[in-house]
Specification:
single chain, 270 residues, Helicase, Ruva Protein, domain 3, Rossmann fold, seven-stranded mixed sheet, 20% strand, binds S-adenosylmethionine
Length: 270
């Protein structure tokens, strides 16, 4: 990547100056800007395209403006036990801010019990493109002091997720990183790819296959949304099940499918 191309710098700094994108990974904005300019777009058009892509893959999911500062203050007054009622109520409230976790709330308990019960207690996991899912900790079968890594593209989101996990006694190691350049240092028992493959495919077409093959995890829990952000279903369950089943068809992996009213999930055992 040519970091000193003045046009790329102009586009990236215009995009990152918008409050909606100021905590987003500059490297990702730079990569998209480089691609758009290579298509011959003028900087003004490139700014629009880069902003639209970052909106589509990340910013669009914030239903409510995240209140990290206020949430951190509230957290300080809560016990560090994820089973505590006050902590659970806090998590449910915070998860409403991100569409992806918000739409999982009605199935939260069943989702993690049914998909992960057989793996309990988990000692290590990598939550890739995590959003606010670390706040689902009280519903996940993790051992106390478990290693919780992973990444997302918003630095303020990652900072808050890590603060929450640390508060609850976990070994928190989430990183603000693009999943395509993120490496899981030490193999993990479980990798989560919750509702993120369609989003990542919008950045790198065909990435799902490679990710499934290369993630150093014994198990991968991958899931898909059943409705678009606008609320339309458009046969998404059928489309995504066909896609995922084709990706794993010729593999010697054990794949278990879970159909929830608002989410389609697969547990892959490698
Ligand atoms: C559909 S949401 C899923 C969030 C979470 N996994 C869940 O299920 O609640 C997609 C997430 O992917 C993140 N994301 C998008 N592109 C990414 C990338 N290249 N690297 C890491 N995270 C990314 C977004 O910021 C967003 O949090």
């Amino acid at each position: 990547m040519n970091e000193h191309n003045p046009l790329i710098e102009e586009v990236v700094s215009a995009v990152l100056s918008k409050p909606k994108y100021n905590a987003i990974l500059p490297g990702l904005a730079m990569q998209i800007a480089e691609r758009e300019l290579a298509k011959g777009r003028k900087p003004r058009e490139a700014i629009k395209e880069v902003s639209a892509k970052l909106h589509q893959v990340g910013a669009a999911y914030f239903k409510l403006a995240p209140r990290y500062k206020q949430w951190k203050t509230e957290l300080e007054n809560l016990p560090g036990d994820p089973a505590d009622e006050g902590v659970r109520a806090f998590c449910l409230k915070v998860m409403q801010a991100h569409s992806s976790t918000a739409e999982r709330l009605p199935i939260l308990e069943d989702f993690f019990r049914e998909t992960l019960a057989s793996l309990a207690p988990l000692e290590s996991l990598a939550d890739l493109a995590c959003g606010l899912n670390p706040l689902a900790l009280p519903w996940m079968p993790l051992a106390s002091g478990a290693r919780y890594g992973g990444c997302d593209i918003f630095s303020d989101l990652i900072d808050f997720d890590n603060a929450f996990l640390t508060h609850c006694g976990l070994h928190a190691g989430l990183t603000s990183a693009d999943v395509f350049s993120y490496t899981i240092g030490k193999p993990v028992q479980l990798a989560l790819l919750l509702k993120s493959l369609p989003c990542l495919e919008q950045l790198e077409k065909g990435c799902a296959q490679e990710m499934l093959e290369n993630i150093p995890a014994m198990y991968i829990l991958a899931s898909y949304p059943i409705r678009s952000l606008g609320g339309k279903s458009k046969g998404m369950r059928q489309t995504y099940s066909a896609q995922f089943e084709a990706l794993t068809a010729d593999k010697k992996w054990k794949v278990t499918r879970f159909d929830f009213p608002s989410e389609l999930a697969y547990l892959v055992e490698k």
